Amino acid sequence: MDWGSNRMTGGFMGFCGLRRSVQSVAIGVVLFAAYSVLRERATLGKSTSVCTFSGIYNFGDSNSDTGSASAALGRVPPPYGRTFFGKPSGRYSDGRLIIDFIAEELGFPYLRAYLDSFGVDFRHGANFASSGSTIQHLDANLCGAGFSPFSLDVQLLQFEQFKARSIESNSQGSESFSKALFTMDSGQNDLHAGLISMNEEQVKADVPRILDQFSVALEKLYKLGARAFWIHNTGPIGCLPYFIFRHKAKPNSTDPNSCIKSYNEVAQEFNKQLKDKMMSLRSQLQDAMLVYVDIYSVKYSLVSDGKNNGFPDPVGYCCGRLGVVECGEKAMFNGTEVYGDSCSNPLEYISWDSIHCTEAANKWISHRILDGSFSEPKISIAEACFKTL
User: Fold this and answer.
1) Which residues contact 9 (CB under 8 A, 6 or more apart)?
2) What is the CB-side half-sphere exposure of residue 229 using CA atoms within 13 A?
3) What is the pLDDT of residues 148-160, one digit of tens each?
4) What is the CA radius of gyration of the chain?
5) Which of 131, 185, 356, 366 is catalytic?
6) Total-model pTM
7) Pick from 165, 150, 139: which is nearest to 115 by CA?
8) Pick the catalytic residue: 353, 354, 366, 375?
9) Dihedral sign, CA of 56, 59, 64, 68?
10) Distance (Å) of CA 265 to CA 157, 196, 234, 351
11) What would you measure as the largest C-alpha separation in the chain, in angstroms?
12) Which one, of 142, 266, 261, 276, lies nearest residue 207 by Cα?
């Protein structure tokens, strides 16, 4: 990110006979300069000369994992990646994720996973997100439920080491980290973990503890030099096919979109407290830009109006068969081996494998959040570097 701004300078003519002309020219130059600055700020998303990031560092779970879990815990199998990459790319989708569209928007290559050591270039940032990760530190209960060992605090330890070694090797200066964008998408798995072990009210009561740990993570990143943050809240977990399929239907338990109301209320409470936490942190970290992005509203609007946006079955999914076989896996069913293949038209689905979005949905969502329409404050992702100008 280049925090410098274009400056306009003009010469001075000291001839008395030209004083009035000079004054007119000077006024014109000042007005033109002011217009230019305003115009550049208004068109920031299209300009790279005023305010650009040095790179992107991402933290989170499978919604933004570009290869960490695949590199450390076993490769993501086909048909993942079939739509865009033509093969598995470490992403839990048929193609690009929101973090990929963020990279495109800012003119960077797609982020490579920190844990992927094969032919990786980290000059434009790194991705520490890992599928199955939580904000809270992994304990015996979370481990037993199958969640990732690479929780948010571990991801921060990885970043701390990455930064130190980058500076030691002279591959990056310390100032490049303060000019980078830090993106975060965590929390869905914490709610998932709670919902499989507690009732909804107990999960809500546990939200402050989880967000206290998230706050500690943000403050640590700040101490490590981070200044620009782009933070996603959690989506409508009650609209995921995975939970709809497994939820024991009760009278009036679902909304008109077939989403589980009580699960979405848990997500809404998490998001409310996350937003409050961001407001508190802004008063403490006054030279940082913390942008809160309302992913929940965008995703829920997509489900609500899916049919009009090219998704005829908003709570359906494309790959695998719930209760029978996972996407890309093989299993025995009624004495016959079955394969979790994908549908032939993933562009018409919001959900790829009952939990993760398709590329089509990720693209739709990205187009609505990157301009700042669903952000607090309402600025585009490129403008997140203006705070410290």
Assistant:
1) none
2) 30
3) 999 999 999 999 9
4) 24
5) 356
6) 0.86
7) 150
8) 353
9) positive
10) 32, 16, 12, 20
11) 101
12) 266
Handedness of CA 129, 135, 139, 145 (dihedral sign): negative
d(CA 117, CA 1): 26
Q: Which residues pair with 337 in a beta bridge?
A: 332
94 is catalytic: no
pLDDT tens-digit series, residues 344-385: 999 999 999 999 999 999 999 999 999 999 999 999 999 998
Catalytic residue among 62, 148, 176, 351: 62
CA dihedral sign, ordered 149, 61, 115, 218: negative
User: Is 137 annotated as catalytic?
Assistant: no
Q: Token pair of 359, please?
A: 């590329």
Rounded to whole angstroms, the Cα distance separating 5 from 49 reads 8
252-283 tens-digit pLDDT: 899 999 999 999 999 999 999 999 999 999 99
Q: Check if 351 is active-site.
A: no
Residue 219, classified by CB atoms within 10 Å of its CB into exposed (0-12), middle (13-18) or buried (19+), is middle
Q: Which residues contact 285 (CB under 8 A, 6 or more apart)?
A: 218, 219, 222
Distant-in-sequence, close-in-space partners of 288: CB < 8 Å, separation ≥ 6:
222, 226, 227, 228, 229, 282, 387, 388
CA distances from 321 to 171, 230, 314, 325, 343 (A): 46, 35, 16, 5, 11
Q: Are 299 and 376 in contact (CB under 8 A)?
A: no
CA distance 220 to 331: 44
pLDDT at 113 over 80: yes
Give the C-alpha separation, 349 to 322, whole Å.
Answer: 16
